[in-house]
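User: I'm preparing a small set of examples for a lab meeting where we compare how different chains pack in three dimensions. I only have the primary sequence for this one, and I'd like the structure in token form so I can line it up with the others. Please keep the answer compact; I'll paste it straight into my notes.
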Amino acid sequence: MKTTEIPIVLETDIRGVERYARGKVRDVYGIDDRLLIVATDRISAFDYILPTGIPDKGRVLTQLSIFWFDFLRPVVPTHFLTAKVTEYPEPLRPYADLLEGRSMLVKRARMVEIECVARGYLSGSGWKEYREQGTVCGVALPGGLRESDRLPEPIFTPATKAQTGHDENISFETMASLIGADLAGRLRNLTLEIYSRAARYAETKGIIIADTKFEFGFVGNELVLGDEVLTPDSSRFWPADRYQPGGPQHSFDKQFVRDYLESIDWDKQPPAPPLPEEVAARTSEKYRQAYAVLTGHSL
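Assistant: Understood. Below is the structure token output for the 299-residue chain.
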């Protein structure tokens, strides 16, 4: 059966509306006291945006974030308002086809310039630091842990936000000195509570959330959860039935892209190379699979 092909969106141009920001993946527009966040199909690796888009990626990021915003309502308020294009302000209506499924209207928030990272497993930059120092972001861990081992309990490892390049891991004490001890404590507790609740749910669906990062901000005096939430771009999702500690894991994310780029003769300097069609297709399949498994719905 032939299916309708969804176009790949790499750029957006919504005329007559303030362009608020352009990230590696998202284009953000300002409308009064609200923001329109559009998730494109751009993908970045090794700090560079690739010229090849990933089919359906923006839709997965948006729809999965909306799922988690709803799931987490008992825990924390969010900046989310609506994803129904028919409820968007009039200047956005002509762009309904572009925005459908990959955008959301949110409250403007004063964002806290800290990435709030929760880790339940030893992987990525945490594994690298642990091998060298026995710590992750200054948090001492037991000896003898292997790559991808489950930690005795989840840990909070903040980072400074980088517009380009890598976020920089910092200690909790450094975070407290930057934003104040009270707010730092609130964000640590909230991050770990959100992560633990989401990880328990994901386990019932056969997915391990190894780690994830959150962003918070203030709408007035209310602390809210913002940006994207628990997506394959902001988290490590591992299939539980293939989990084997002691090395890297199978994952529902852009590992296919990283593996391909490592296999070719690219010096990780611009321009970034295009991806073969099969690599983009396999990556898209992983993103859609993560959405389907976690939500119980196909995209």
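A couple of notes for your slides: DSSP finds seven helices and 17 strands in the chain. Residues 1-108 form a domain with the Phosphorylase Kinase; domain 1 fold (CATH 3.30.200.20).

User: Perfect, thanks.
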